[in-house]
Write a structure and sequence with these properties.
Layout lengths: L4 E8 L6 H13 E9 L1 H6 L9 H15 L5 E6 L14 E5 L3 H13 L6 E5 L12 H5 L12
Parallel strand pairs: 1-2, 1-4, 2-3, 4-5
Length: about 160
Amino acid sequence: MVWAYDVVAMGGTFDVLHRGHRSLLKRAFTVGKTVIIGVTSDSFARNLHKPHKVDSYLSRKKDLEELLRKWGVLSRARIVELTDRYGPTAKDSEIQALVVSKRTLKTAYEINKRRRLKRLYALKIVPIDLILAQDKHAISSTRIRRGRIDREGRVVG
């Protein structure tokens, strides 16, 4: 298989893995030979002030590894713990592209600004559309935790 990039990166909390997460991950593994996946640490997740409980880092990482193993791509993944919004993307010269949802495009631009300050080349940004639930609103862990939709985006109740 030929990939567009040798190394791509992406990141998130990955709480309650859902169809939106899977779409983002699939895109990353389609364009990148190796995918660095940043998963927010417990303290960073708390600092995001999500309006619900977030599973522990170890639990979220384990769920992610299980999914990637099922897909047969775990050997191409490098899961790293994120303690801030940028992780290795702001300084790692081996990373070539960043796969993001349109909701996190702003952070991608900030990463490239930081890279330029360190005299690193800008990352190619590979955006994907937000995945909408049955009710035409974005699928999110918050909406799932609140019982409004399920992990596939189906309206509950």
